[in-house]
Design brief:
By secondary structure, the chain is of the alpha+beta class. The protein is 15% helix and 37% strand. Strand 4 (84-95) and strand 5 form a beta hairpin.
Length: 146
């Protein structure tokens, strides 16, 4: 019987092989084969685009900020339905004979503690800020210790 000395792999340097494969699973396929199978359309067509959002709160309000550069306030639609705030923006551009358009949308859950009739929105420098005031009974209250 012959003994063979092995040196186990230390660390996680082999994980990078799997990481590369997951990032580019069709690297080994010929380019023409992937075009015949229609894979280029499956992986290269743009999918739905959502608005980037930043959500935070202070003592009296919740704030939701959305990035919508180059969109006029007339092209922005804000809707609150069943505790779901939906912001949609549509932009149409005409360059020469070609007309292009895109639409962005984002929905966020809104807590029950929001005064729905007092929600306001402001568009400034491509940033839409939606202010959602909290109801009085849900605001934090300071209690004095006696």
């Amino acid at each position: 019987m012959k003994l063979i000395r092995t040196y186990p792999v230390t660390g996680l340097n082999r994980v990078s092989d799997f990481d590369d494969w997951f990032r580019n699973p069709f690297t080994g396929f010929p380019a023409n084969l992937s075009r015949l199978a229609g894979w280029d359309k499956l992986f290269n067509e743009p999918g739905p685009v959502t608005l980037a959002a930043d959500i935070h709160e202070d003592r009296d309000h919740y704030y939701a900020r959305f990035e919508i550069p180059g969109v006029r306030k007339e092209d922005v639609k804000i809707e609150l339905s069943n505790n779901l705030l939906t912001v949609s923006a549509e932009k149409k551009e005409k360059q020469g004979d070609e007309e292009s358009s895109f639409s962005l949308t984002r929905s966020i859950s809104v807590p029950d503690t929001v005064k729905a009739d007092a929600i306001s929105a402001k568009l400034e420098d491509g940033i839409l800020t939606v202010t959602l005031p909290k109801t009085e009974e849900r605001k934090p209250r300071n209690i004095q210790v006696s």
